Amino acid sequence: MSRVFINYRRQDSEGYVGRLYDHLTQHFKRDDIFMDIDSIKPGEDFVEMLENAVAACDVLIAIIGPQWLEITDGTGNRRLDEWNDFVRLEIANAIRRKKLIIPVLVGQARMPAPKDLPEDIAPLARRNAVELSHQRFAYDVEKLINAIRDAINVDSSSVRTTDPEELRSKEAALKAVRDDLVNATASPLYKFRTDSRSFPVLGEGYADANIMFIGEAPGKNETETGKPFCGPSGDVLEEMLNGISLKREDVYLTNVLMDRAPEKREPTPQELAFYTPFVDRLIDIIQPGVIATLGRFAMWYMLKKLDLPEKRMTISQLHGKLIKTQLNYGEIHVLPLYHPAVVLYTASQKEILRKDFQKLKLFI
Ligand code: URA
């Protein structure tokens, strides 16, 4: 587990801090990000409280904006020179405890010189800084996250730590959905399933995945094995995943239809109405941070489910655009992507898909 402490001055960098916090929550658990120690009760020793909070973190991010060095209090004294300044206390504490400190420069601020800092935080000036700009925000944050990971030696698979008990309970819940699908005799495709001796295809992957993909429908390869995306489209999907250092086992894969239709055609409204409640259940159990839809049908399902203003837009308008929204369990993003099968017919689409996949790096 990695805990991140965000040290900042509201007047100096508030706009950036909110955005940064949103990005960090995609990589770290909300409870592992400390900011605004606002629960200090009357009578409590705030110096001690801050000490404890800093002691509990692995990394302190010191956000430095253009006014950071000079901001004064009501009487004209520089805040940084006051013994009880929160920003100074937190940084001094992290230095004493030899915590990793990453200065983050925002609003074109420069790194202060040691001579401009009180002695107890002067060593901050020697730390290598990361710069965040509004224009390249996602790119810069990615650099920052990589710096945190490198420094505390966290590998991507362990960033979102799962309590083993919780994982078991999610796996059991997924099994219950699978059993219901197997027994779904009312499905418009059930007869074809049994006539063709096919398997239904619920989905596959990590029960606590942060990234979930929703495709269109299983094909012959999939219904012969019961596994999603195991034919040519699956090969493209795997290549794209590998391009962002992910494996199939790191994510969860499913489809808006879970049985194969007798002929190659688009899903019907009846089929979608029958199978998408199963997808709803998968989402409720897995609770991913991002849902990447593959193709038009999965995209429409998510946009309508969430009643998003984009629901009347086309995939050529929306592909590669992260849409931030809320589900009953918290904040999520939807990322519409072209279906990997498109790449099989039009090679030039591969680069577009590859580029759009880069957006998922924020959630690894
Ligand atoms: N395989 C799947 O599982 N889904 C698709 O949409 C295509 C191929």
In short:
With 364 residues, the protein is an alpha/beta fold. It has helices at 10-24, 46-55, 86-96, 137-152, 164-182, 190-195, 220-225, 232-243, 269-286, 296-305, 315-318, 340-345, 349-357, and strands at 4-7, 33-34, 59-64, 100-106, 130-132, 203-205, 211-215, 252-255, 290-294, 323-327, 330-337.
Secondary structure layout:
Blueprint: E1 4-7, H1 10-24, E2 33-34, H2 46-55, E3 59-64, H3 86-96, E4 100-106, E5 130-132, H4 137-152, H5 164-182, H6 190-195, E6 203-205, E7 211-215, H7 220-225, H8 232-243, E8 252-255, H9 269-286, E9 290-294, H10 296-305, H11 315-318, E10 323-327, E11 330-337, H12 340-345, H13 349-357
Parallel strand pairs: 1-2, 1-3, 3-4, 4-5, 7-8, 7-9, 9-11
Antiparallel strand pairs: 6-8, 10-11
Helix pairs in contact: 2-3, 5-9
The structure holds uracil.
Residues 215-219, 222, 228-229, 231, 233, 255 line the site of uracil (URA).
Give a structural overview:
The protein has 364 residues and is α/β, with parallel strands linked by helices. The protein has two domains: 4-153, Toll/interleukin-1 receptor homology (TIR) domain (Rossmann fold, 3-Layer(aba) Sandwich), CATH 3.40.50.10140; 157-363, Uracil-DNA Glycosylase, subunit E. Helix content is 39%, strand content 14%. The protein has 13 helices and eleven strands. The protein has a six-stranded mixed β-sheet, sandwiched between helices. Strands 2-1-3-4-5 form a five-stranded parallel β-sheet, with helices on both faces. It is elongated. Uracil binds next to loops.
